[in-house]
Structures are given as structure tokens and as C-alpha cells.
Write a structure and sequence with these properties.
- The structure is a single chain.
- The protein is about 0% helix and about 45% strand.
- The chain is mostly beta strands and about 260 residues long.
- A hairpin with a 7-residue loop joins strand 5 and strand 6.
- It starts with about 20 loop residues before the first strand and ends in an 8-residue tail after the last strand.
Length: about 260
């Protein structure tokens, strides 16, 4: 003690150490077709400094209930990618949950049950027909249609569908599934009573497992007169003032059948 004899004091200071605050920044997923891979982009960030928390043996990212693959972009960005396989969901809106956890110093706050919404749609498709021309009345139209997955832009795997024309025409039509996403129709044009141009609607229903959309097409059929031929045999020589016999043939140009 010394002058001026101040009273000594003792204070007890309690320090409570808490986890460093964190946040998971992630970009919303786009509407994605069924059976495709889409990447969820996320950054695990230190809230106090604003810096990304880089990949480390102490860091784990898990998606309970799913086996999605997680990739790290590198320390330059600190970005993680979660590769989401949409085939694990049905069509429509869904959610899955992320757990981002850190073990040990510097004791980053764990972020669990981070809800990620995702919307899965049907795969877009198209139905297109090949080239064709006007057809003689009564002949059979053979026309190829291609059913294509527009998300993969291929017709591979698009077989197994059910292709139909306007209902009243189906008794005059057969359809071949060519096994490669193309379909051939064989339409008996005698279904129509008159010559002219007719619109025909075509519809296909998907028959596979990848949730592809059904598709429609429209084509115009023009029926024209049947082509014919008029010919004759070379007549025999006949004396003057005698009757010569000439045989005339009126035939169908397509079938070569005689027309009575």
C-alpha cells in the first residue's frame, strides 16, 4: 500500500465463446426437365468477414436422403456445386435440404436444414413429318413422322409411343413404330369422298419412362385425279374400202388395270 491508500478491487470477467456466424449463399435452381442433371451453386460464407469459407477436411456438405455429388470449384472462388439428379423427383415442385457443417477451430456455425426448392417439368418434345406431295385419289399415303426429345434433341428412345390421326380416319390407317423414334403411317385415301385438300391432325402419346410430353402435328393432304393412259394396238393392214379394227385401251396409270 502507498499513499493515498486506494482500496484494491477484484473483478471477475466471464468470456463466452460462440461459433463464428455463417451463412449459405445459393443461387435458385432453374425449372429443370425430368431426368437431367442441374448444378446448385453455393458458397459457405463467414458473416463477420464476408469471405467464403474454403474447402477443408473439417467441412462437410451433406444432402440427407439423396446421394447427390458435391464438387469444389477451388480456393479462388470458394464455390461448391451440388449436382442434382432430377430423376429422383416426380414432376412438379419439391424441396431438399442441405447440411453444411464445420468441426473444430475456428468454430464456424453449422448451417443445417437449408431448404432448397426445385421444380421439375416434363421433357419438351416435337412431332414433325417428312416431305410428301399430292397423291392420286384411292392410293395409299406413306408418311414418316419423327418424335423428338427437344431437351436432348434426339429421337433415340422415343419409340413405344401411340400415334393416331383424327379418330374417323383410324379405320383407314395403319401405323408402324420403326423403333428409332420415327413412325410411318399408311393412309388409304379412299377414306375421302371427293378430291381436294384436307387438314389432318396427328397426335402421339409418350410411352416411355422419362416423362416426355405428348406432341401434335398437322399436315395437309391434297387428293388429285388418278392419272390414266389411252393407247391402242398397231392395227393390221387392211385393203382399201374394207373395215379396219383398232383396239383402244383406257388404263389406270398406277395399277395398269383397264377402265371400263
Amino acid at each position: 500500500a502507498a499513499l493515498p491508500y486506494y482500496q484494491n478491487q477484484i473483478i471477475v470477467i466471464s468470456v463466452q465463446i460462440t461459433s463464428r456466424l455463417t451463412i449459405v449463399d445459393w443461387d435458385p435452381l432453374p425449372v429443370t426437365p425430368y431426368d437431367e442433371l442441374v448444378n446448385l451453386t453455393l458458397v459457405f460464407r463467414d458473416t463477420l468477414s464476408g469471405d467464403p469459407i474454403l474447402d477443408d477436411a473439417s467441412l462437410s456438405i451433406t444432402i440427407p436422403g439423396y446421394s447427390f455429388t458435391v464438387y469444389y470449384d477451388g480456393d479462388l472462388t470458394g464455390i461448391f456445386y451440388v449436382e442434382v439428379d432430377t430423376s429422383v423427383f416426380g414432376l412438379g415442385s419439391h424441396s431438399f435440404y442441405l447440411n453444411v457443417e464445420w468441426i473444430g477451430a475456428p468454430y464456424y456455425q453449422n448451417r443445417t436444414n437449408v431448404q432448397i426448392p426445385i421444380t421439375v417439368r416434363e421433357r419438351y418434345t416435337s412431332l414433325t413429318h417428312g416431305t410428301y406431295s399430292s397423291i392420286q385419289y384411292g392410293n395409299t399415303l406413306h408418311l414418316i413422322f419423327t418424335y423428338r426429345d427437344l431437351d436432348d434433341y434426339t429421337s433415340v428412345g422415343m419409340n413405344g409411343g401411340s400415334l393416331t390421326l383424327d379418330a374417323w380416319l383410324m379405320s383407314y390407317c395403319t401405323v408402324d413404330d420403326n423403333g428409332d423414334g420415327t413412325y410411318t403411317i399408311h393412309l388409304d385415301t379412299s377414306a375421302y369422298a371427293n378430291l381436294g385438300t384436307y387438314a389432318i391432325n396427328v397426335h402421339i402419346e409418350y410411352g416411355g419412362t422419362r416423362n416426355c410430353a405428348d406432341a401434335n402435328d398437322l399436315f395437309y393432304l391434297t387428293l388429285v385425279q388418278r392419272r390414266t393412259q389411252l393407247t391402242s394396238d398397231l392395227p393390221d393392214l387392211a385393203p382399201y374400202l374394207t373395215e379396219a379394227t383398232i383396239v383402244i385401251y383406257y388404263t389406270d396409270d398406277t395399277t395398269s388395270a383397264g377402265i371400263a
